[in-house]
Amino acid sequence: MEAFTMKTPAGDIQVARWQPVEATPAGSPIVLLHDSLGCIALWRDFPSLLAEASGREVIAYDRLGYGESAPYPGPQPATFVADEASGSFATLREALALERFVLLGHSVGGGMAVEIAGAHAEACEALVTVAAQATLEPLTLAGIREAESAFAEPGAMRRLARYHGDKAEWVLRSWVDNWHSEAFDGWTLDDALARVRCPTLAIHGEHDEYGSLAQPRRIASRTPGPAEPRLLPCGHVPHRECPEVLAVLVANFVPDRP
Questions:
Q1: Domain-wise residue ranges, the chain
Q2: What DSSP letter does each residue of 20-60 carry, written as one string?
Q3: Model pTM above 0.90
Q4: Domain 2-252 class in CATH
């Protein structure tokens, strides 16, 4: 893995790149977008597994406010999902000269991947959403509240701080408060889904505690690609619960390499 810092007007962003060990990378890179509490480190071994399975370079970055990136300058706006297409991702694309790419987003990162695929439709070769939310539903809100209560237990915030440092409280509040805000009421990805032009695979865990099967079905039915989602025998975090299976599934889906 190669890690480096990318300068942006809003602050430094941490970036990591993985290359396949057994071959020279071929095809466009796969860019990973993390979830609401995530960061590069929490992808664990999945990026290296995906690089090997696909033969492609894999790129991940900590969004502003997360992981080893700089703090976010203030409260995260309710438009943060859509904003990623013209924000950190656009800066990353320009800095790394990514003419074409594949996107994989987990949870809210999946929603961001949809927004990016729609906004950069000329360059996005394929889109994979993993445990993504396409609309607001009671199960999502209840799951977030349950997690918020768990973080109130002694020592729980220390585990979050292990990955986000003194930004941990901001990370938690951005997740809980935005999803329960009045501004987020009625939120959907429908407009962004209508702009997606590339093959799309919606992956979901059968036991996902943050989203029903209506979520991936909505994504699959409104984008090019398989009309039904691909279900895995796991919960909300397939890249930790069944990383090898997920890596092979994604590698088999992305367009053939030249």
A1: 2-252
A2: -SSS---SSPEEEE--TT--GGGGTTHHHHHHHHHSS-EEE
A3: yes
A4: alpha beta
